[in-house]
Write a structure and sequence with these properties.
The structure is a single chain. The protein folds into three domains: 277 residues, Aconitase, domain 3; 174 residues, 2-Layer Sandwich (Aconitase, domain 3); 201 residues, Alpha-Beta Barrel (Aconitase, domain 4), CATH 3.20.19.10. The chain contains 23 helices and 35 strands. The strands form nine sheets. The protein has a seven-stranded mixed β-sheet with strand order 16-15-21-20-17-18-19, with helices on both faces. Strand 1 and strand 2 form a beta hairpin. Pathway: Carbohydrate metabolism; tricarboxylic acid cycle; isocitrate from oxaloacetate: step 2/2.
Amino acid sequence: SSSLIYTLQLALGHGARRLHVSAAFSAKAKVSMSRFEPASYINYEKMQSNVDIVRKRLNRPLTLSEKIVYGHLDDPHNQDIDRGRTYLRLRPDRVAMQDATAQMAMLQFISSGLPKVAVPSTIHCDHLIEAQTGGPKDLARAKEVNQEVYNFLASAGAKYGVGFWKPGSGIIHQIILENYAYPGVMLIGTDSHTPNGGGLGGICIGVGGADAVDVMAGIPWELKCPKVIGVKLTGRLSGWTSPKDVILKVAGILTVKGGTGAIVEYHGPGVDSISCTGMATICNMGAEIGATTSVFPYNSRMKSYLEKTGRGEIAAVADEFADLLVPDQGCEYDEVIELNLDELKPHINGPFTPDLAHPVSEIGAVAKKSGWPLEVKVGLIGSCTNSSYEDMGRAASLAKQALDKGLKCKAQFTVTPGSEQIRATIERDGYSKILSDVGGVVLANACGPCIGQWDRRDVKKGEKNTIVTSFNRNFTARNDANPATHAFVTSPEIVTALAIAGTLNFNPETDYLTASNGEKFKLLPPDGDELPAKDFDPGQDTYQHPPADGTSLKVDVSPQSNRLQLLEPFDKWNGHDLEDLQVLIKVKGKCTTDHISAAGPWLKFRGHLDNISNNMLIGAVNIENDAVNKIKNQLTGEYAGVPDVARHYKANGLSWVVVGDDNYGEGSSREHAALEPRHLGGRVIIVKSFARIHETNLKKQGLLPLTFTNPSDYDKIRPDDKISIRGLKNFTPGTPLTAVVKHSDGSKDTMELNHTFNETQIQWFQAGSALNRMKELQH
């Protein structure tokens, strides 16, 4: 086989797949298919060549993460490689965008003036469907309410060569796993949970829309060379313990920022006890520890999943290149965590942050002590993290035990299938009926309550209550816009058990339920098939392939629209230091992208920058008064909402600065959290530390994300200060800038501010944005 020419031109798409192979490969099976994506090149030979070049240069064994990342280098011979320090120029294989972020990404691509995307790209309609009554009705209403946006995305996709997955097709990450991810792929997606694809051995990274535009434009994509955290798994998963418990435990160890700047690479003998979709669950929630992405080595579980989803040919070629798709013997990690799966217990994390980890056996006592409501009001299973066939089967096995004893859920119970394929298959195989019979409402194949698309009616806003979900995030007010909702994340199995029991104070491993006839019984551990015995049922066809030539097609955006707005270029840097910037708000404590640009009801404005800017920082806590969305307008002396004050400053020619705390901008990849401050007159964000994606997004839009060299300098800044940023005329990588802080009493403080800009990123700042710089280079 070594004489074969391993250049695989692989058309990846919905349904069956077609392989184009060189003459040397013609003996291998060819599969016909009716619909497929623009050819995506699975070129393991090129990847192997890059890896060989880099391994020789570095003269050491490589981790799996390094093999895939360095295997996609633009220039492996000359690229400066130093984990945690240098910026890599990479050539990802493909791009995926969900509909809430795709609007701004496609608006930016349109304004770039390019005729067609340079790499295979897809749009996935999953974020704009609100959960109200159940799947079919909610989907029909979403199509009506969002018609303008869906038409824009479908027509822009057709014109610029982007595949379009219609509303109802499923959640972006499940669709990618079923169709586009494969071992060794490098994929970027405009959603922070893109790392889900690491469950199929790919390096899949969440980015902002401007990064996606770079890749779609054929420009090398920049990523700071990631460190690699190794998680060694020993033992085997069994009983009540699930793949979700691995990441719940790791989140408790590493915290919400412990993975920042690193790829988490799972390895060790315990890996083989986890299903492919279980590995995807673990990688998906790796976003909650700030990791660049997470990945598992290629193994038989991935091969089975590829075969079951119609991609056996990819598995066959991956087998040929298996050494490329696992870490080298003797490779070194920057940090190693060891987990014995034999000893791992079921976990539940929360409330209000996904890294507050508790064993399920202890949560009742902790909740009592902490004053958290014990009654579980709603149990919600599904989401991009946990909506696989296996997840639904294991939950259904518990529901069936309850039904057999005459019980239904005491809590409300919702079920979100991850894709149309999962929905159709669990309906065919009887899981949906069991979950409905126990009290479940099957929602649309979409994000729904996980991202706040939930018209919740059972509690009033401000009413303390507890919900338990199999989602990935549980920030304050994220799911239902109620800041008093205590949300806990756990496995679908534990959600189902707690929904049946109706209380947090229930450990299914030891505690008894009471059957309808009065007898006491214990739930047996959950059980479910990893993959369906029959093939997956694809359900309805929901994919629109772009035409071969879309140049004659029109993409209309009405100037009267309140949902969509064409972008105007941001102003260029004027060549001078930034003088007397007004502090808009000094933020206290946790400030996620949900605080900076809330989702939920605001999602409908994601394609209209001016309208969505009315939610800028309305969730952030003002240190001056501990209030949200109430800051002092220093020009008028009146208190008003953050966006209102920012607009007033902008109208009066006063640029401003935000001051923030640690891990500022953690959470979602939404670039609106960077676009809005820029649009409303912001120039600088100064914090103790940033989350990775948000820091990059700020740079892309021409803002200056800066960090205190001395974190205690945060305490010196007052809410009514004016700040000047000095040193911009000599702005260079690695050289700090200086802030002169003028207080209202006439005194001053001078402080040093660090930045992580490289040469290219400094050019973005000088041009006013990365998009402006791209246009400059075209002329």
